[in-house]
Write a structure and sequence with these properties.
Helix 4 crosses helix 6. About 25% of the residues lie in helices and about 30% in strands. The strands form six sheets. Strands 1-6-3-10-9-2 form a six-stranded antiparallel beta sheet, with no helix packed on it. Strands 19-23-20-27-26 form a five-stranded antiparallel beta sheet, covered by helices on one side. The protein has a four-stranded antiparallel beta sheet with strand order 5-4-7-8, with no helix packed on it. The protein is built from eleven helices and 27 strands. It is globular and about 85 Å long. It folds into four domains: about 120 residues, C2 domain (Immunoglobulin-like, Sandwich); about 120 residues, Sandwich (Immunoglobulin-like), CATH 2.60.40.150; about 130 residues, Immunoglobulin-like, CATH 2.60.40.150; about 120 residues, no CATH class. It is an alpha+beta fold and about 700 residues long. Pfam families: C2 (PF00168), PRT_C (PF08372). Its main location: membrane. It is a multi-pass membrane protein. It is found in: Cytoplasmic vesicle, Secretory vesicle, Synaptic vesicle membrane; Endoplasmic reticulum membrane; Recycling endosome.
Length: about 700
Amino acid sequence: MMLDTCKLKSACNLPFVYNKKINTAGTSNADVPLADPGMYQLDITLRRGQSLAARDRGGTSDPYVKFKIGGKEVFRSKIIHKNLNPVWEEKACILVEHLREPLYIKVFDYDFGLQDDFMGSAFLDLTQLELNRPTDVTLTLKDPHYPDHYLGIILLSIILTPKEGEHRDVTMLMRKSWKRSSKFQTQSLRLSDVHRKSQLWRGIVSITLIEGRDLKAMDSNGLSDPYVKFRLGHQKYKSKIMPKTLNPQWREQFDFHLYEEKGGIIDITAWDKDAGKRDDFIGRCQVDLSALSREQTHKLELQLEEGEGHLVLLVTLTASATVSISDLSVSSLEDQKEREEILRRYSPLRIFHNLKDVGFLQVKVIRAEGLMVADVTGKSDPFCVVELNNDRLLTHTVYKNLNPEWNKIFTFNIKDIHSVLEVTVYDEDRDRSADFLGKVAIPLLSIQNGEQKAYVLKNKQLTGPTKGVIYLEIDVIFNAVKASLRTLIPKEQKYIEEENRLSKQLLLRNFIRMKRCVMVLVNAAYYVNSCFDWDSPPRSLAAFVVVEDMLEDEEEEDDKDDKDSEKKGFINKIYAIQEVCISVQNILDEVASFGERIKNTFNWTVPFLSWLAIVALCVFTVILYFIPLRYIVLVWGINKFTKKLRSPYAIDNNELLDFLSRVPSDVQLVQYQELKPDTSHSPCKRKKNNLG
């Protein structure tokens, strides 16, 4: 069973019940030979639901729908909040190889932080559909445990179209599950044009979330703690939380990749953060990118539907950066003319030309050796994913092989020279999500150009080795001045990062790191105290009064918290404690990382950054020699106070903190550390020994 979808979603196992009703008359395609090798395109419009089951305490539900064919989830709808008669009007395009497998439909009630509630299921026999004719379908939802219960209906519109002789490579970008094609069971396949097109983005969508206005109050104090979620296809981004406000000021900027020529739809939802229980839905809106002109910044004031208030955004569509996938025989840097053009593009003479284009990265993914066994056959089906910040490309799959050869070249544009290249090897699995085999993280500034190296694969946390090595050859070309200037602006956030979870080991590690930083400060304080060591009764008395006053305030807060906690249920208490622990864990990590980054700046962990700090101090010293300090402070103050007037939607930043964010912490240094390969287990080494 081969399938492809317009929306890329992860797979999961779903039980279903059959109950369908087709509201059209005519001959079906049941007499079509099921062994027909031709492809079929199934265009489905999820219309609406009626009289769905209530699963929430308020007598409503937050329904969404999943489609599944052949054990794979192929579509998931958006969530319609607090509605038993939801209207979706969402379209899905599915390619199926034959019609034996039915289309399964399952409806869930979304519960934030908890397991989603089952609301009913049904399935549709594709052999009963008439070819090339729109069909309206009404499906009655059932629960296999309670077959007599009425759970409502789902209405669909379906068109089944034959795609004779059309075959597609189904290895796709950003899927958690990759379907195996029987055509390439035993041999590696050459990278096809379809494979390239499915990964290479055609443009960049730059979004700046400015502010919210007059949002709906969701808390008892008449305020909210709002944050915003964005989704464009498989790409997702979540803003920071703004506490206790109905007019939040975010000033956050991020980029999405645009894969479709005609644009796409950005789904935007606003939420109120609630500790210990499900977050409240504030409202939703959409941005149709096909209606926006390119190479121009658009200011959008969007009214929130199903709620109150507005969101203010800046959206810019630009042409695609230079990314490519090719075979090993086609290398940009080995072609003399192309190499000269790349060197000219990043020469010192082009400092002020496109400051976001810092450099060029070429990655040759050659082969891997001695990989972990992931299948019961004693083999694996490995493929490789190459990531640079939010740019993500992948190789084809080499089936039944622990020593695969990919021989592919990937090229990226570098927006930040302090980025880290991540190369991950997965095992493609037929019936579930891909299995992790190993990973390496390589800072761009540590790369030695043109050198083929064997990198030992590490575990998911990058703290220790796993089985196997991967051979890479990497080249980096960049403009040092552009790279230095980009160091002083906010770092790009990864929108596919997983949220932090509570970990006893991680909490203990962060506490120890924090303790080391505090001890450094304590030792410095003792040193200063030794220089000014005399008794001061007034100062001691003042400190005693301040400390006593702080303790009284804490006791009052504790009493107030005790009264509030009595009203909470046991489950809410558990969630609240967990959130507090995660917050403490994250704060310890941030403080410890801050201290470690300062230390690593002065001990030349990253020479580029240390030299940049020295050059900046020298320039400031020279300026201070010729210009009085009061004039410098005056100019700095005028710049800060007039920044909002000159650029009302500028994103606030602190250049010193942006600089320190590029310096690796001690934990990151361990993750980036290269491990020496064990040559005794290399297949090539064993072959030589056998020949000897």
